[in-house]
Structures are given as structure tokens and as C-alpha cells.
Amino acid sequence: MKKLYLLALLALLVLPAACTEVNEYVQGDLRQPAELTPITAATVKARLAWSVQLEPFDEFHDFKLRPAVDDDVVYVAESRGRVAAHKNRNGDLMWDRLYDAGFSAGITLGSSMVVLGTDGAEVWALSRNNGDVLWKAQISSELLSPPLVQDTMVVVHTGDDKLIGINAATGTRVWVSSHSLPSLSLRGTSAPVLWNDAVIAGLANGKIVAVNVFNGKMLWETTLGAARGRTELERLVDLDGRAAVVDDVLYITGYQGKTAALNLQNGQIIWARDLSSFSDVAVHANMVLLHDEFSRVWALDRASGATMWQQDDLHGRKLTSPVVQEQYLVVGDFAGYLHWIRLSDGKIAGRARMKQAENRARVLGAVEYPEEDPLHKYVDITGVPVEPFIDRDRLYVTDRSGVLAVYRFSAVN
Fold it and tell me: Are strands 307-311 and 297-301 parallel, antiparallel or unpaired?
């Protein structure tokens, strides 16, 4: 791990909040990435439905901009200020707008609005019908995780580890819950999740907090990861991934910390094990699913945390957070591949590559490329930096070249 620390030091960024951040995608695996082997008996088929060219990802930052889907519309956002709505059926453009903002997190949908965060410490709410700005709210720091939208409140987790509640109708700030920030953290924040009237979030200091969604009052606090070691990097603990809530239990994981299940009534730990990760957690049936810092994929028993299976064929491939599609787990990797993993046994059951989507992508609307970075520079950029999004039999994924691809999923008999 000593070599990892030296490599990580090269990725440090100093922010106005006086906290130093380590790039979230520094991986702990110093081995060569695993070579992909042919799948002899694929049980999954992914057919490209449509693809469109969006703005390429920033070279140095993997912003948390995922598409959002509601019935017949797919909403997308780009870091340089474009937001667009596409028809879900074929990708045709419905509307797009270009704003004077740098979007850094989203999209989250409300009943009538699209909510995003900016790198300029603002939260924006846009009309779902045409992109008109409904309101803007100033916050304390850059937003690095998607907002949480409740019926009457929008809650954000800022880069300086504050939870902020905003009136969903007016954009007025209602409450702030502040938390101590360590001197070193991963670049990113956990996305807040909702349980009844409680907002739950993992913090950069290894704690999990639950606050009231309407007034920000602290309900409980639990320490999951404790700082250990002599150097700042050795003492780094950070709960950066999105937790999962199922049946009054919270499942969460942290970097250089633990993976655990917590009772949402009081924050008490039901089970915990030493399994370090900065990925989101997915839950399906009796399984907790995640990958560790070495890109090994794990299935844990929901009741006890015991290992059900481990998949090591993708080690070192810098996997996205996992998402569940029917009886499969889906992850993207640094080379632009998508992998479908059987939940029953952890075997890789299907694979798709984004190259076909890149070749067939249409350019629609006000897609802009900076003059110093023309489109041809991005043709060979590969990798899936943000986890895919699942909606029924469709999978939505964006690669580093800025191509949004929509795949139809089907099982092979």
C-alpha cells in the first residue's frame, strides 16, 4: 500500500474549503488490469437502441452527471452547461438549453423539475417541459453528488460536508447541518438517501448521520470508519458511495473502512466487515453487492455480511459502481466495456463495448466543443467513468468521449 500512497499524492487538489482531496478514482490495485477472456456461454444479449454525442468528459474530473429517465423522456446534462431532453424511444431531441454554468452533479428529477448542482456552489431547478430556470440556490461549496428531491425539500451534500435543505418550490435555504471535515478526503461526497422523514449520508470523517428532512435536526450519528496510521493518507477514511436502504436497514461501504448494515431506527450496526470501497452499494433479494478498491466484485449475505461469492476476473479495471438489471449485476470499466455478472454465481454472462455506440452516435442540438479540444481528439478516449443507469429493460451509459448509449437487454435462451 505504500506505493499507492505515493501515487495518490500526485493527485492531490487543494480546495477553498481548506481540505485536501484525493482523486476518487485512485485505485489500490498495483497489478496490471485483468485481461478480458472470451465468454463461452453468454446468457445475456445487449442490443444498441440508440446513441447520441454529448460533450466529452473533462480530462481531470469525473463529474457525477448521470442521465435521468421518466417514462418517455431521457434528461442529460453536460459539465459545460448544456441540459437536454431526448425521446426515450429513439433518442430524438425534444429540447436543449445552454446555460452559463458548470454542472457537476445530477440529474435528479422532481415532479415538475430537473435538479442539478454546479461547480460554482449553486443548486439549479429547471422546468422538465422546456428547461426554463425555476430557481437557483447558493450553497457553501461545489456539489459532487446528486441532489435528493423529496416532495417539499431538496437536500444536497456539499463538498465541505454540509447537508443543506432547500425549499423545493422556492429555492430558499431552510436548514444547514454542518460536520467536521478531515484534512484529507476523497474527491466526492456520498449522495444523501431518504428513509421516512430522515436524510442519511456518509461523511468524509467516516461517520454516518441521519437528520430530519424538514429541519435538519440530528437524529443519530454512527462511526463506521476510524482513522488509523501515521500518515494522512494512511488515516484517510471516507464514506463516498451511495448507500442502499431496504426494509429499515441501511447498507453502506467506505474507503479504508468497513462495509456494514445499520438499523435505521437508531444507527446501530447490525454487522460490519473489513471491506474497503468507494463504490455505491446495490441490494437485490438477499444480497449486498459492491466492488472493492481493487475492482473485485463481491456478493454479501444481507443478514450476516458473509461472502456469497467473489468475482476477481475484472480486477484493476477501475469499475463503475454496480447496478442491478433483473438477475444480473452490471458494471462498466476503464476500457469502455460493460459487463453483465450473474447474481446466482458471480460468473460473467455478457459483455458489450461502447465503440459501436460511438460509431453510430448522432450529434443533436447545441453540442459544443471547446476550440482547443476539437471532436477528433476524443475519438479514441475510452472508459465508462460513471455507473450506468437502469430503467426496466434498458441500460443508459455515458463514456469518456461523451457518447450516451442506450442498450436493450434480453436474456439468451
Answer: antiparallel
Tens digits of residue pLDDT in 254-312: 766 688 999 999 999 999 998 888 788 999 999 999 999 899 999 999 999 999 999 99
Distance (Å, whole) CA 291 – CA 282: 10
Residue 52 near residue 331, CB atoms below 8 Å: no
Phi-psi category of 336—alpha, beta or left, where left has phi over 0 and alpha has psi -120 to 50?
A: left
372 vs 314: CA distance, rounded Å: 35
What is the per-residue pLDDT across 379-405, written as a single tens digit (0 to 9) for each? 445 688 888 989 888 999 998 888 999
- Within 13 A of 56's CA, how many CA atoms are on the CB side? 19
pLDDT tens for residues 166-193?
999 999 999 999 976 544 445 457 889 9
CA angle 42-293-348, nearest 5°?
5
Q: How far apart are CA 146 and CA 189, in angstroms?
A: 9
pTM of the model: 0.85
Strands, DSSP E only, in 120-268? 122-127, 133-138, 148-149, 153-157, 163-167, 173-177, 184-186, 193-195, 198-202, 207-212, 218-223, 244-246, 249-253, 259-263
> Can you spell out the DSSP letters for 35-97?
PP---SS--EEEEEEEEEE-PPPPSS---EE--EEETTEEEEE-TTSEEEEEETTT--EEEEE
Query: Does the pLDDT of residue 20 top 60, yes or no?
Result: no
13 CB-side CA count, 13 A: 15
- Which residues sit opposite 209 in a β-bridge? 201, 221
Segment among 45-59, 142-156, 177-191, 237-251 with least mean pLDDT: 177-191
CB contact at 8 A, 403 and 397: no
Give dist(CA 334, CA 382) in Å, integer: 7
